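Q: I'm writing up a methods section and want to include an example of the input and output format. Could you take the sequence below and give the corresponding predicted structure tokens, formatted cleanly so I can copy it straight into the document?
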Amino acid sequence: MNRTHVSALAASLTLVTALTGCGAQEPAGPAATASGPVTVTWWSWDESKFLDPVVAKFNATHDRIKLKVVKQADNPGTAANLRNVVAAGQDVPCLVKSFGEVPGLVGEGLLADITDAFRPYTTQGLYNEASYAGAKAGDRFFGIPAGFSPSFMMINRAVYDKHGVAVPKTWDDVIAAGEKLKKHGVYVMNLAGEDPSTLVNLVQQAGGSWYAIEGDSWKVDFLSPASLKAADVVQRLVDGDLVANQTYQDRPALISYFDSGKMVSLPTQTWQLGNYELNFKKSLGDWQPIDLPQFADAPAFVTPAHGGALLVPKGCPHIEEAVAAGVWMTTSKDAIDASYQQDTKQYSWPGAVPDPSPWIDSAVPEKLFGERRGEAKDVILKATKAGRDPWVVGPNYTGVFSELQDQWAKIVTKEITVRQALEHLQKFTVDDLKSKNVNVRG
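A: Here is the clean output for your methods example:
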């Protein structure tokens, strides 16, 4: 492997090579010696109240490895600091909270290939299979899977019932519900002009991805059947004037709008529920957790489950120990239990494990769903088991996503169609990759 390609924009070429199995394995650090245990440094910008109990539990239960947190200011600060220490080759931490997609960070030369150290843990039933993709570039691991938060929907059942609208099971049902609710001045969903996540999630749910790796090239396809199926749902929602366009940039106003009964269906995840519980006033208790609507022709129930990773930087001196500590943090009962917060009575969501049922009850607020609170456990477990992650992140996805946001704003205001946006993104993405001398087809 040509080491001269590890940095700058040409790193994307090396990424292609690494993805096909040529990536060099960073040497594992030494085991604990008579001088003491190996210390694994962990960078995170989370509050100390979340970090300290987990570190304390790890250190109390491990002799050969010890965890040490180095607190970071924020996401951008962590990214800048890591780039600096990796470039310098000094004081490199061994675990870092994720601040970006793994393939892009690999393309920058920031992450270590930990496949050999991590692979043995994949045979022990510790992880939800869908969690692996977020920690990989190609078939190689560059981080420990941190998992995903299960996707489902919550509807304002009081408003649905008031207008005699059936609970939706498919996206066609959502559109039909929107047409009925529109007559009463109610929107079925919200599509914020700056947030294209609905389109991205629908593409994933349909089993699609805009990038793929074929041999030594990237393949780009924004016009695949899965992508067009997702586009059709969005287009019908927009064309029918069935959706609101409340911005996420003014959170208090957004939450107040959700609470008003004028918009009644929210695709959501467990991490969002506490905020709704805290801030809803008028509609508290009116909401019902339901299964995420499916495509009418879906052969099986599927939810999008693109997750993240606990990063292992290039230059980490103790890869085997870092992996062991990371696996403990993301899968062990001790670690999850240690994350419990007395003030919120909640655990950090165990998004990497196959069965999060022991911790679901604390994730479901007491009042949000009223008498339907008991339904949430089955909905969340079903969403977890149905999680699939077909999403491949390309080496220029950060710039492409920014372009997607610009196109999305035009979609929701009917300046362009979804297909026109996808056609534009196809050309934009391919041209951008070619300008970076990355092998690309599309």
